[in-house]
Amino acid sequence: MPEDHDWEAYKVPPTRTPVSERTTSVPNPVNYFQTAFNYVLDAPVTLVREWIEKWQSRNKFYYYHQKFRRVPDLSECLEGDYVCYYEAEAQWRRDRMVDQQIVEIVRERLAACKQREGPNQFQNCAKEMELLAQVTKAYQDRYGDLGYHGSARTCLMKQKHRMMEERKAAQEEQQ
């Protein structure tokens, strides 16, 4: 609302409650409590809060762009290095969440393309369909059949078994 009201254009109706004008010589103790509260509690807290806000405005932190350093894979950890095991597991979980989000984004792009194109979706959205097929195949190759309780160790074993099967198939083709 603007600060300069036109009181003549918008007249305020008179109040029905009479204004009490105290004419006693006894001071009101509430005024003393309010003043003491303001100087003892409110002023220091407000001062500290303003100082914190001023400091934070100079140093902006964006937590949603947090970058984790890459840690060694589980296959690179030494035997008995439990800290390395833990870090590799955490890295694997972050990678799995990122891959899930990639699949979801590609799926949403395909759905948007289908919605936009309507009956011509098979011709005009072929590139998005191919990309979704590639992304889901890569995700299934890496994380498929691990279940909810999958871990970096089970994923590594799955990759090891797949590599052994590919080597065996390549040897059988050569013979």
From TrEMBL:
<comment type="similarity">
    <text>Belongs to the complex I NDUFB10 subunit family.</text>
</comment>
<keyword id="KW-0496">Mitochondrion</keyword>
<dbReference type="GO" id="GO:0005743">
    <property type="term" value="C:mitochondrial inner membrane"/>
</dbReference>
<protein>
    <recommendedName>
        <fullName>NADH dehydrogenase [ubiquinone] 1 beta subcomplex subunit 10</fullName>
    </recommendedName>
</protein>
<keyword id="KW-0813">Transport</keyword>
<keyword id="KW-0679">Respiratory chain</keyword>
<keyword id="KW-0999">Mitochondrion inner membrane</keyword>
<dbReference type="Pfam" id="PF10249">
    <property type="entry name" value="NDUFB10"/>
</dbReference>
<keyword id="KW-0249">Electron transport</keyword>
<keyword id="KW-0472">Membrane</keyword>
<dbReference type="GO" id="GO:0045271">
    <property type="term" value="C:respiratory chain complex I"/>
</dbReference>
<dbReference type="InterPro" id="IPR019377">
    <property type="entry name" value="NADH_UbQ_OxRdtase_su10"/>
</dbReference>
<comment type="function">
    <text>Accessory subunit that is involved in the functional assembly of the mitochondrial respiratory chain complex I. Complex I has an NADH dehydrogenase activity with ubiquinone as an immediate electron acceptor and mediates the transfer of electrons from NADH to the respiratory chain.</text>
</comment>
<dbReference type="InterPro" id="IPR039993">
    <property type="entry name" value="NDUFB10"/>
</dbReference>
